[in-house]
Amino acid sequence: MKLLWSYIFLVIFLIYERKIHFKASAAEAGFVSTEGVHFMLHGTPFYANGFNAYWLMLVASDKSQRYKVSSAFEEAAKHGLTIARTWAFADGGYSPLQYSPGSYNEQMFQGLDFAIAEAGRHGMKLILSLVNNYADFGGKKQYVEWARKKGQKISSEDVFFTNPLVKSYYRNHIKVVLTRRNSITGVAYRDDPTIMAWELMNEPRCATDKSGRTMQAWISEMASYLKSIDTKHLLEAGLEGFYGPSDARKQHNIPYFQVGTDFISNNQIPHVDFATVHAYPDQWFANESDEAQLSFLRNWLENHIQDAQNILRKPLILAEFGKSSRDRGYVTNKRDELLTVVYSAIYSSASGGGAAAAGLFWQLLTKGLDNLRDGYEVVFYESPSTDGVIVEQSRKLSKIRRMFARTRNL
Question: Rounded to the nearest 5 degrees, what angle is found at the Cα of 211, between the Cα atoms of 205 and 214?
Fold first, then answer.
C-alpha cells in the first residue's frame, strides 16, 4: 500500500510539473498582431529582445545534432530573448530544402518542423524568411538558374523579380511552406502562433532598376499572394532600410548607395505589416573610425524610427545588427557599445509608446557550432559583458510590457 501511495504521489507530481512547464512554455501562445505602431499580444503592446539563427533548420535536419537547437533556445530563454529569425529556405546545392522547383527534401523540412516545435516549447516567436537575395543557400540566383534550364532567356539574377516562370516557382514555395503540416506538432505552419511573421526575402535588392519600381511591384504582388493563403500571420519584406533615389531621405543612406529598394514606399504597401532595418556600420564604413560608425548608426536608427512612427505608422524591428570580431582593432567592449547604441534607441522609442519594438542581433551560436562562426557570432559563455548588455535590454523591455499590461487591466 505504501508503495502504491508513493506511485500515486509520483504521478500527481509529474502531472503538476508538466502543467507548470506547459504554462511557462505557452506563456507567449497567441498570434502577434499590429495596432498602429504597436505589435500586440494578449491585448497589450508586445516589445521583445531577440536574435538571428539562420542555421536552425540545417542543424535540426540531422537528428543527432538537434540538441544544439534545443540548447540555443534554452540559453536564449535564460537571457530573456523571445524572438528568433531564421531561414525557411535552402534552394538547390548542399543540403537543400528545395531540390528543384516543387521538389522538397522531407528530412530538411522535418528539421524546420523541429525548430518551430522547440521555439514554441521555449516560448519563442519566429520570423521565417522565404528566400535569399544572395547566392548563399541558393537564393534568387538558383531560381533563375532553374528557369534558364527550362529555356528562359535570363539577362541577370534580377529577372527573379519579373520573369513569370521564376515568380511561379517562388509563389509555389510560399504555398508549400505556409501549408506545411508540422510532423511533430501536427499544426500547419499557417495556423501556428509560434510563427510571428513571414519575410518575403532576406535583404532584397534589384540593382538593375534603382528607381525602385520593379521592387515595389514584386513586393506588392508577393505580399498579396502570401496573404491570400495566410491571414493570421504578419508579413514583412526583409528590407535593410535604404531610401529610394526620389526620396529626400536618401541623404541618410550610405553615400551614393542605391539598391532598388525604398524604405518608405516599400513599407507603405498595405499587406506589409511592419518595417525592418539592418545595420552593419563596420561593413558600410570599414575605413572609418568606430566613433564615426556609431555616429552614423545613431542617425540611421533615429531616422528610421521616426519615419516608422510618423509616416508609415507601423511597428519597426531592427532585424539585423552586429560588429565583427574580425574588424581591425576589435575588442569586446566595442561590440557591447554598438549593442548598447541599438538597444538604447529601441528602449527610448518603446518606453514612450513608439514604433521600435525589437532588436535581433546577428547571430546566436552555441557549443559545437564553430563551423558557423562568421565574426559576428554571440556565444553567451564566451563574453560575460555582452551577456550583461543583452540581459539588461530583455529586462527593460519586459518591464515595459508589464507596465502596459497593468495599465490595460486598471
Answer: 60
Active-site residue set: 203, 320
Q: Helix 332-351 vs helix 290-307: angle between axes, to the nearest 10 degrees?
A: 20
* pLDDT tens string 308-320: 999 999 999 999 9
248-284 core/surface letters (b: 16 or more CB in 10 A; e: else) = ebbebbeeeebbbbbbbbbbebebbbbbbbbbbbbeb
Q: Which has the higher per-residue pLDDT, 298 or 17?
A: 298
Return the CATH fold of 34-409.
TIM Barrel (3.20.20)
Instruction: Tell me the residue type at 242.
Output: F
What are φ and ψ of residue 372, in 5° steps? Answer: -100, 5
Q: Could you tell me the pTM of the whole model?
A: 0.92
d(CA 301, CA 213): 25
How would residue 388 be classed by pLDDT, with cut points 50, 70 and 90? very high
Record the cell numbers describing residue 74, joined without a space: 534554452
Give the C-alpha separation, 130 to 160, whole Å.
14
- The average pLDDT across 124-150 equals 98
User: 3-state class of 317 per DSSP?
Assistant: strand
Helix (H) / strand (E) element for 379: namely: none
Question: Which is it for the CA torsion 112, 149, 207, 169, positive or negative?
Answer: negative
Q: Dihedral sign for Cα 147, 153, 158, 162, please.
A: negative
Please give the torsion angle defined by the CA atoms of residues 136, 281, 240 and 162, in that order, rounded to the nearest 10 degrees.
-50
Q: Calculate what percentage of the chain has a pLDDT beyond 90.
A: 87
